[in-house]
């Protein structure tokens, strides 16, 4: 028996993608408890961030994600597409900083979710719904990321200094490799813990990412010894069944204390968690 394909789905347009991206950012920041990160309980290891500011920032970026989707929907991965997304992303950063009083709330997320937005918009214009998967979206995002942005500002950032000092992978390298942290770790964790309540499932995904991510947000404030301890403790929690197991609550509290004592924040892992939530929203909507 031949199953008839659904028509190409144009109901997920630029507006819907932008809504999903903002929802993903909001759901990430509202996930509680998160060690070192802003949530409903506290501001994590941040003096300049709080929940309402993060929510304001996320909502401010809606127009950025919509513009990205509209701009590249009919394109194919190319240097031009890479530079269009980067230009819109930098404009989004300016909007974010204007809204937050010059506080960097979502710069990393603009990069990651922006690539996913562009990739999803492209696929939605040419593929049938059942042909679009998290893997196909991340593969196209990677094809975009391999191109150079000739107009990137030539400035020295904290992230670039940290990457040079510790020889760790950059966000661009992660993307150009088609997001191995997402494909090989985070998305399998999402599936492995699908039997858990959503809060526990997502905390386990976050911990899975913290266990493997050379997070420059952490290294910027500390060193490799601190990062390795965070990775090892996060891994121990996940390997022993995750946050759904009562015996792991004490380990999680130990992790939270260690992160607070060292005043570091796993912001890179948080951005990747938002990407997982975003991908889940896109692919779930295509199953309906």
Automatic annotation (TrEMBL):
Domain of life: Bacteria
Record-linked InterPro entries: CitG
Lyase as UniProt keyword: no
Enzyme class: transferase
Recorded GO MF terms: ATP binding; triphosphoribosyl-dephospho-CoA synthase activity
Biological process annotations from GO: prosthetic group biosynthetic process
Entry EC no(s): 2.4.2.52
Record keywords, A-Z: ATP-binding, Nucleotide-binding, Transferase
Pfam families: CitG
UniProt keyword annotation of Nucleotide-binding present: yes
Transmembrane segments: none
Reaction catalysis annotation: 3'-dephospho-CoA + ATP = 2'-(5''-triphospho-alpha-D-ribosyl)-3'-dephospho-CoA + adenine
Protein name as it appears in the record: triphosphoribosyl-dephospho-CoA synthase
Species name: Chryseobacterium carnipullorum
